[in-house]
Amino acid sequence: MNRFSALLVLGAWLFVLLAAPAARAVPAQPDNDRRTPVVRAVQATSPSVVNITVTRRSQGDVRSPFGDPFLDRFFGSMYGQQPRDSQSLGSGVIIDGAKGLVLTNAHVISGGGEIAVRLLDGRDFAADLVGSDPDFDLAVLKLRNGAGLPQVSMGDSDDIYIGETVIAIGNPFGYSHTVTTGVVSALNRPMTTDNGAFGSFIQTDAAINPGNSGGPLLNIHGELIGITTAIQARAEGIGFAIPVNKAKFVVHELLDSGHVAPIWLGLFGQDVDQATARYFKLRSVKGMLVSEVHADTPGARAGIKPGDIVLAFNGAQIAGKDDYLTRLFGITRSERVVLTVQRDGTQRDITLKPQVLDKGKALELVRTRWGFELADRNGGGAEVTMVRPGSPAARLGLQPGDVIHQIGSRRLASGIDLLNAFLRNRMQKTVLMRVQRGRGLYYVRLTL
Question: Which of 141, 197, 283, 311 gives 137 a disulfide partner, CB atoms 3.0 to 4.6 angstroms apart?
Fold first, then answer.
């Protein structure tokens, strides 16, 4: 090796030795690959997700410490009944941090009781019920002394893609702030839950378990697109959420008046049987035959007439009058309804804007169709003030002074309950009622 080559080799080694320490001294760059959009959405939204506990006090029988039935009766006779606490768990999300407003499911807080809310940071608040609506299964709570709290970002449930990633946060089985992910499986799913909720839901395969009810369904931007409300108990990977756009309107009405105004289209109808299907040349017995159209209602203004067949509601085929009512109860007065109606063998789509049914009109319809008049009563229920001779109420044996506590599945605690009870049962051939006469309580069936 000549002198020049040796100098080149020596220079190369010197460069490596001098450069190597400098290379080792360069700090490692932080690894953000694991901070996916889902992680960022959860981190941004979790502080606004709350754990809700409702404590109810009931009277329980006193038991002896010996487990003997005879001694149980002895202890019970001596000490009577003692109060017993029961608790239910659910989830919610803060929608207004400045006012301390929480949105949750109505069934989470149904039945009354003391409401306690816990945030992710461990803070506890007592809460008061602002308003709830069981038909939409939504309720608004106000945290006492709650101000300056984190709140969720509102999204747009009309801008959802089937297949897009969604995130559910809640408190399943008491495990606080549990995160599950999935996709939007379907949109506009009509269903009825055991809690009385009707309407068009977002269907998702994100795991939703008891305790998740009332929690948020989020997109990957951390925006609220739904309130989780129900699970299909007999299947896996099927959960439902109330679209946030519907929830926004329900919240507005709950904050304004404490309830959601009941709406109708002015139509009465009946199921399509085989004879009707043959007469109108229908392919099946599905649909609702319109029997009455009340004046000055959306149906009358749209030109719907008795004898028309309602085949679809907002593009979905209806099975009959009960299906029609189920879908109608999932609509607010801010929305439009498109009915597919057949007349003389021709089908057409009719767009209607729902109308609020006022109490005066409801009482008039109760009087003319069911045959009695009602008045509000302190302490719950509605008092029968008049029974029309020859009416269904007269044939049943109702009398003035009777108190009706329940119509169908709706308990009558206020005037708005009567409106909703009538709307839900107005097309039935028999209506189950819970009636008080004197000290006795009876379940009776009103046959129309």
Answer: 197
